[in-house]
């Protein structure tokens, strides 16, 4: 089991800085919540890890002590980091099965599709459907399933519940809950939905205006209404 470690990471879009010296560790087999208001820097942190081209990153990001510095996105993916973007990016003209098969890499077991479908059952019922026929929640399930097709060590999810109905959010929660044990992955869950994070994550980090504002156990945050008021969006669901 290895860890993904961010140390003193600074990120900017051109001249505009969005992250200021952020540090965070994610172990394989655990789920960590990344909370914060709109514009706090959650997506930027995930994009920094995968070296998304719009972001310029300084500081250290490493897996098991091996630096990812300077590597392009596809190489970082080969090191075992998968990203579930907030806009889901399902190929609309392809079937769900084709969307998943395209993401099946050589390092992953031959039966990875069966394993993924067992963990994300919603996707199993959709295999012959085209991307354009899917609801937002179904697209989200496909996006998560696709991330698993490369047998990653770490999965970075960007607001998977955004805009989704409670019933499908519950199905996604059940699937995400299985991932650390069934795939051995570490899940970094960027969210504004605190109830969703609290149901899945043992630890939580809060970013505010690009800085790490607080980090600790989910249980501690649940019992800290002042922190919730200060750092989470008004109306963020509470457990
Ligand atoms: N492509 C971009 N170009 C310039 N600035 C950007 C870009 N993307 C994000 N930003 C800025 O970076 C800061 C952090 O944004 P980010 O998207 O990381 O926040 P977030 O916490 O994910 O918010 P949300 O919950 O709204 O997605 C914000 O000030 C935002 O305006």
Characterise this structure.
The structure is a single chain. The protein has 239 residues and is of the alpha/beta class. The chain has one domain (3-69, 85-231): P-loop containing nucleotide triphosphate hydrolases (Rossmann fold, 3-Layer(aba) Sandwich). The protein contains ten helices and ten strands. The strands form two sheets. The protein has a six-stranded mixed beta sheet, with helices on both faces. The protein has a four-stranded antiparallel beta sheet with strand order 2-1-4-5, covered by helices on one side. A hairpin with a 2-residue loop joins β4 and β5. α6 packs parallel to α7. It is globular, with a radius of gyration of 17 Å. The two termini are 31 Å apart. Bound molecules: adenosine-5'-triphosphate. Adenosine-5'-triphosphate binds at residues 13, 16, 18, 36, 38-44, 54, 192. InterPro entries: AAA+_ATPase, ABC_transporter-like_ATP-bd, ABC_transporter-like_CS, BCAA_Transport_ATP-bd_LivF, P-loop_NTPase. Residues 4-234 form the ABC transporter domain.
Beta fraction? 25-35%
Query: Order of strands across the widest beta sheet?
Result: 6-7-8-3-9-10
Head-to-tail CA distance between termini: 31 Å
What is the number of E strands? 10
Reading off the top of the CATH hierarchy, the class is best stated as Alpha Beta
The ligands found in this model are: adenosine-5'-triphosphate
Mean pLDDT: 94
Low-confidence stretches: none
GO molecular function: ATP binding
Keywords: Amino-acid transport, ATP-binding, Nucleotide-binding, Transport
Family: Belongs to the ABC transporter superfamily.
Protein name: ABC transporter ATP-binding protein
